[in-house]
Specification:
alpha+beta; two-stranded antiparallel ribbon; 4 strands; 1 helix; 103 residues; 19% helix
Length: 103
């Protein structure tokens, strides 16, 4: 009977390391969390999709990045190291997507 149905709950987060969002859902009569998990998944997916559309703010640079590296060559028992300036092209900002039904 519905009066005796169990409540379902689910907690999800993303990303796995250093989470940016945590979603807790309590679904009354949700039967073991299956429906609560589906709802939490939709909330997290909406958050991730929105974050991917927003352009990242990057500090202005002269478009060169300083990179340090350590390596060795085959048969060589010594490590070599160096610093390099890598010329980085300006990233293109993602285009915004229209809401469903709009063009």
């Amino acid at each position: 009977s519905e009066a005796l149905a169990q409540n379902g709950w689910f907690v999800g987060f993303t990303p796995r390391r250093n989470p940016e969002i945590i979603v807790a859902v309590l679904f009354e009569g949700g039967e073991h969390g299956r429906l609560a998990a589906r709802l939490a998944t939709q909330v997290i997916k909406a958050y991730v999709d929105k974050q991917r559309r927003l352009p990242s703010k990057v500090a202005k640079q002269d478009h060169k990045v300083d990179v340090g590296a350590i390596w060795n060559e085959a048969g060589d028992e010594q490590f070599h190291g160096g610093r390099f300036l890598i010329d980085v092209a300006k990233p293109r900002l993602p285009l915004a997507t229209a809401a469903p039904g709009l063009r």
